[in-house]
Amino acid sequence: MKMINIIQAMTLSVFLSASCTTKDTTKTETNNDTTSAEVTTIVPSASVPTLAELEKNPDILWMGEVEVDCALNYSRWSYDREAKERLLMEALGFTGRNSSKILKYQVRDFNTSHNDDHNLFDKVLKSRQDIKLYKESTLENVCTQKEVEHDIGRVDTIITFDPTTMKEVVQVVVNELNIEDIKGFRVRQVIYYSKKAMAFKSVALAIAPLLYDYETETPSRASLKPIFWMKVTALNTVPDLASLDITWAKRVYRDFKLSTVKVIKEEQDIAKVVGTMMADFGENSEKIKIAHTFNADGTEYLSSEEIRNIGGSIDTIITFDPVTFKEKIDIVVNKMNDKSIKSLRLIQDWVWNDKTQSLNIRYVGFAPIINRVDKNGMFLNSGPMFIRKIEDIQ
User: Fold this and answer.
1) H helix or E strand, kind and range, residue 374
2) To pair with 342 at 20 to 30 A between CA atoms, which of 47, 156, 278, 387?
3) First-to-last CA distance in the chain?
4) What is the model's pTM?
5) Is the model's pLDDT at 7 over the cut of 70?
């Protein structure tokens, strides 16, 4: 077994042990009223293992840590190719699939609601005095209230000149943070592969709102600055969206490159892990469930024959000529080897709980991203090969 960055792994182990919890909820009945009462005891989730358990588990062939940026209110398909906002967001790193759909949006008081109620950052901002906020993704150093107010207030020092004396004057200006300047969130998470489950899995650990620095001459991912970090609770069950405590929930779909993962454990390198996964699919095609990519949530499933041929299928897709805009039928060759998968798409449910003032993230599943080529080997596009969901794993 190849172990990488032992100090990092030990730190992450303690952190993951504290993050992977689940809250027991019971129902209490008084007269004819049924209310939800939270049990204060928080116990480790059997479905969300700690890092130490993952490290020792021979079933885990590969594991690493990655920070993935997600823009909850942006989808590239909502903009023309040359639109200013799309060009900016792509320069900031939001290429590939970055989209989300609303699962729940609840307004407690219609008379006092406003347009920012749907914005996750607005909810965090309103709760900032009751939430522990940290200076770094490892959640080691807590921000003071003064530091938080300074960061969200954007205190700037401006040098001007007195028109009468012509002397230099230093002024401190507080610019109120524009919520539109928060372009997304950065999620620190552990990604690992389970041979038994034949699936990649993820546990979210921490999250940070990302402020865009408009003074950057050339926009890039480096232009996005985490304002602060906050702890995330990893959910192992489907959230109860009927609960009045849950006022906001979204399903997030986001691609990330496997090359950006900081590897912690490596029984096999990632290429060999992919090869192992595909071989296991073929051997277990009669009893496993793998979903088509006809829709983002994978509600339709491949047949056992399709699963056996998943690494070398030939499909017919309809595209459009960019010049004539006429429909074209292309033959797509999906030939895959161990090194074909360069990116993964994570599917997660993000849930805000007003009562606990916390963000919970449930891992739903993944989709490997491959390049599609025509019969002559020319690149056509890239996209998901299949969808594997946690609910479909026995």
Assistant:
1) none
2) 47
3) 27
4) 0.79
5) no
- The alpha carbon dihedral of 61, 268, 270, 63 has a sign of positive
Say yes or no to pLDDT of 314 above 60: no
d(CA 211, CA 225): 5
pLDDT confidence of residue 79: 87
| Nearest CA-CA partner of 235 in 29, 88, 23 | 23
**DSSP annotation string for 22-77:** EEEEEEEEETTEEEEEEEEEEEE-SSS--HHHHHH-TTEEEEEEEEEEE-TT--GG
pLDDT above 60 for 296: yes
Instruction: Say which DSSP state 326 is in.
Output: -
CB 81 within 8 A of CB 57: no
- Mean pLDDT of the region 275-287: 94
Q: Count CA atoms within 13 Å of residue 355 on its CB side.
A: 10
CA dist 211 to 6, 85, 152, Å? 32, 15, 9
> Between β-strands 182-194 and 199-212, what pairing exists: parallel, antiparallel or unpaired?
antiparallel
> 217-239: per-residue pLDDT in tens?
899 999 999 999 999 999 988 99
In sequence order, what are the residues at sequence separation of 6 or more whose Cβ sits closer than 8 angstroms to the Cβ of residue 253? 97, 98, 99, 100, 296, 345, 346, 347
Determine the average pLDDT of the residues in 314-334.
Answer: 66
- Provide the H-helix boundaries in the chain: 6-19, 51-56, 84-91, 120-126, 145-153, 270-283, 304-308
- Cβ-based burial of 269 (10 A; exposed 0-12, middle 13-18, buried ≥19): middle
Q: Is the dihedral of CA 323, 325, 329, 335 positive or negative?
A: positive
Least confident span in 174-178, 197-201, 232-236, 339-343:
174-178
Separation between Cα atoms, residue 358 and residue 212, nearest integer Å: 24
Average pLDDT over residues 122-139: 94
CB-count burial class (<10 Å; 0-12, 13-18, 19+) for 61: buried
The token duo for 276 is 């192992």
